[in-house]
């Protein structure tokens, strides 16, 4: 898809971080943007900073009716939609799988996975009817390789990758020109990443500290884990850089966008483990 002035983009999770960076980049290219976020005041501020071609809407992506209403409002206001960016996401709590409350699973899956599905269901029929357009589903590095204490998050992001792959195949089978890109960023310099290590209480004797200690392998200290996490965060790329790389993948009609550019080893490691397991069955 060629991104051009005069087009219309819809972005969920647009109040801050990657979503706000998408909005800034696209308005700079001359697009109108419709921004959805649960944080009403924040998304209105973001839209106000972008000018009259930006509209802010408050809503929860886990509610199908919110996305249906967003599609109606977008078409009523602009008469078209060209680019749909399903970006809204939450990290959830960090317990081991067996300790994570059911309501946390429901909430993370509801926002991260069903939020994407709701966006697809609300907008893709209009894109198909128009005969053009593109869907960007923002997954994560966690959609390619999971890590301890992010079970719900990683599960939801793996599912976003799978849904995107299937959506692309189904659109191709239907003979549609609508494109799909699934973005799998690693660490990006956003408030979500900053909050990951800024949570209070990660000190010896605290509940968070003791919870981390229980979930780590024997011989690995909480201090070592936190130091490694901080080192990873220090490699985070700026959100505008991530957005520009993802949009380049959109314009090249690429299914996968890996904006950090350092995920080859991660993808290869998992593929090799699967292939080795298959090989061991034939020996």
Describe this structure in words.
The chain has about 280 residues and is α/β, with parallel strands linked by helices. The protein folds into two domains: about 10-185 and about 235-260, NAD(P)-binding Rossmann-like Domain (Rossmann fold), CATH 3.40.50; about 190-235, no CATH class. It contains eleven helices and nine strands. The chain has helices spanning about 15-30, 40-50, 65-80, 100-110, 115-130, 150-175, 190-200, 205-215, 220-235, 240-250, 265-280, and strands at about 10, 30-35, 55-60, 85, 135-140, 180-185, 190, 235-240, 255. A seven-stranded parallel beta sheet has the order 3-2-1-4-5-6-9, sandwiched between helices. It has a two-stranded parallel ribbon with strand order 7-8. β5, α6 (about 150-175) and β6 (about 180-185) form a beta-alpha-beta unit. α1 (about 15-30) runs parallel beside α2 (about 40-50). It is globular. The mean pLDDT is about 90. InterPro entries: KR_dom (IPR057326), NAD(P)-bd_dom_sf (IPR036291), Sc_DH/Rdtase_CS (IPR020904), SDR_fam (IPR002347). Belongs to the short-chain dehydrogenases/reductases (SDR) family. One of its GO terms (cellular component) is membrane. One of its GO terms (molecular function) is oxidoreductase activity. This is NADP-dependent 3-hydroxy acid dehydrogenase YdfG.
